[in-house]
Amino acid sequence: MVARFFSVGLILLTMLMASPSVADEPGLRMGLLPTNAALSLISLYNPMAMHMQNALGRPVDIFTARSFRVYYDELIREEFDFIVPAPHFGVIALDHGYEPLFRYQTELRPMIVLAKGSPIKSAVQLKGRKVLTADRLTAVSVVTERWLEVDFGLRVDRDYQLAEASSHTTAIRAVALGEADAAITTPPALIQVPPDVRDAVDVLPCRLSVPQQFAMAHHRLGRKTVERIRAALATFGETEEGRAFFAKGYGGFVPLTKTDIEAVRPYADIVIRRIEGGE
Prior knowledge:
Layout: H1 8-17, H2 20-23, E1 28-32, H3 38-56, E2 60-63, H4 68-76, E3 82-84, H5 87-94, E4 98-104, E5 107-108, E6 111-115, E7 130-133, H6 139-152, E8 161-164, H7 168-176, E9 182-185, H8 187-192, H9 195-198, E10 201-205, E11 210-211, E12 214-218, H10 223-236, H11 240-246, E13 253-255, H12 258-276
Parallel strand pairs: 1-2, 1-3, 7-8, 7-9
Antiparallel strand pairs: 3-12, 4-12, 4-13, 5-11, 6-9, 6-10
Helix pairs in contact: 3-10, 5-12
């Protein structure tokens, strides 16, 4: 089951700020991938949740999971009402009853973080190195693995070591401290680390990119509620809180199209094979 205690901060805030009629309504379950520490996710997405709550007149509770694999299980069991998944998990969600709404405007282009002054000047020099990733199931990790193999002939476990960190922030910090040779991450993740950590690293951009994170609602909510969620999200960027949120490297919301989904489906297939095949 989802780790409900992760959402305690938001639930308390909802109870304090909402009117009694709102607080008495059943809450919508907002499911987030565990791309960062739970409290960091709550802090980041609380403005979006509160905006939706005010527009819908019912609580919105934030949930995350212990791991990407646990999130995958919860996603295919359709436990969430509203989700903001990484794009390849969004394709999986589409096949389990979730309706496309929006995606972030910016492209999800992975980057490899190196310590400032590192002797590594090209991705081909990662051979024999230790590279960190938040999770091998993240979109940036899957895309970067493909890029390193296609462009440089580097295969994970054969040519370089890929180790999982607890989050993007942890991975970037480890590189800054010299505890790892490199880390796979994203521009938004790099923007969100402390300035002293950000100033201690350089980056190698990845050639490949995919659409950014999706926003989706489960069709069981009914057409009226789904459309109200769509309308609420469409105005989020017009608020002060929304502008601050999108300034963290997301750009804004744009409609999620079939082209976006099909561009990411090959990476979703990789994740399904890894999880269902026990890789």
